[in-house]
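sorry for the late reply, my laptop died twice this morning and i had to redo everyting from scratch. anyway the thing you sent over, i finally got around to it. pasting the sequence first so we're on the same page, its 267 residues, then the predicted structure underneath. double check i copied it right bc i was rushing
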Amino acid sequence: MQLADHVYKEGGKLKWIQALGTGVDGITDQPSLRDDVLVTNMHGLHGDSMPESALLSMLALARNLPRSLRNQGQRKWERFPTGLLKGKTVGILGIGVIAESLAPKCKAFGMTVVGITSAKRPVEGIDRMFLRGELELAVKDLDFLVVLTPYTPETHGILNAKVFAAMKPKSFLVNLARGGVVDEVALLEALKEGRIAGAALDVFAVEPLPQDHPFWAMRNVIVTPHLGGFHDQYPEQALPTVEENLRRFLAGDIDNMINVVKRPARA
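ok and here's the structure:
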């Protein structure tokens, strides 16, 4: 949930914000948030839930689960061939804690794993690595592109018409990062024109997704309401970080608080 900017403007005594997710866009980009306000997040908490969400999305797209669910609603018995993950190539855009957990799981399905990152480093389960500046080259042989990269000025709209044009017509997009990473107008056109086969979208430029948005009705799109990081064990996993940070904050031990977000000072 994003707080309106006037909350920060009127919060003259605000000293610390604990985000309950990893992403802090919507917090750190608010004009009235002072540079001296400490921001901490839940970095590292989504190493189980997000990889499972990515695998769920890939399996649902490969096996055309929406088609089966539509048939169920119509009580229609229709058998059709579905796809396997085995032998396919998945690209992961954004190589952090989540990708480190996802890559070996993809390998367990018999997939080839490609990493796309701002800084190359060896990661278990990743077969080859591309720099983010090589994105158009990296996507050309992918069957799935899983987006995990944080939303920053550098990644705003990074998945654009040129990237979709470079992807295979039978490839799928899975976005679990932030809506702003994707040029949604370009994605709509790519989906309508069959330049890519489909998409599983958990995040959007505007949330909640407006009821009249075309994504809702597209037969090759799976829409979920920003569920990727949430699960039944989230409170018990998150509370220890919140409690420890609260103890350290009250004790004045600011330097040792957990997951402090580094923010460049604004002019």
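The mean pLDDT is 95.
thats about all i looked at so far, will dig more tmrw
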